[in-house]
Specification:
mainly beta, 165 residues, 52% strand, 2 domains, five-stranded antiparallel sheet, 16 strands
């Protein structure tokens, strides 16, 4: 069975026999048995408009369950190249952070010192403001290596996409 999700690009999640830890340096899809893509977004627009979806991040979750990991990936074939489905090389994997009540994980909608940086993801404190304060957990994907970096959350704010609704 194939489950498809549409985000900023088309992602299809299928299953195979490997566990989530074995994904680094593997081509996806297929994903480990019992998992599926929960959320995904392109992050490499800083490399130029034509390369905006060359690198992406996605959240992997247990089917009918909770998120378990966050993957960084680089496109190796996309449907614009005549393939029926994009293929990605997983370049890094981190555990999904602990999210307490009143908190959220924000992907690709953060700014550092006032400048939008789609490579940043952070745990924020929910509030009824346009920009959310980061609790402390923040990561950035290095576009040259595809690896997650631990970064200081000072100067980071993330957009509240539900603000004003």
């Amino acid at each position: 069975m194939i489950k498809c999700f549409i985000f900023t690009f088309f992602v299809c999640a299928t299953a195979n026999a490997d566990g989530p830890n074995s994904l680094v340096n593997k081509v996806v899809p297929a994903y480990p048995n019992g998992t599926e893509v929960y959320e995904a977004s392109c992050i490499s627009d800083a490399l130029g408009a034509e390369r905006g979806c060359e690198i992406a991040i996605e959240v992997l979750k247990v089917k009918d369950g909770n998120p378990i990991s966050i993957l960084a990936k680089k496109v190796i074939k996309n449907n614009l190249q005549g393939t029926s489905q994009s293929q990605w090389l997983i370049t890094d994997k981190i555990e999904y952070p602990k999210i307490d009540a009143g908190e959220s994980l924000v992907l690709t909608q953060c700014r550092l010192n006032g400048k939008l940086d789609r490579t940043i993801l952070a745990v924020v404190v929910d509030s009824k403001t346009e920009w959310l304060a980061v609790k402390g957990w923040a990561r950035k994907v290095d576009l040259s290596t595809g690896k997650f970096l631990v970064i200081n959350s000072s100067g980071i704010q993330c957009e509240n996409l539900g603000w004003g609704l």
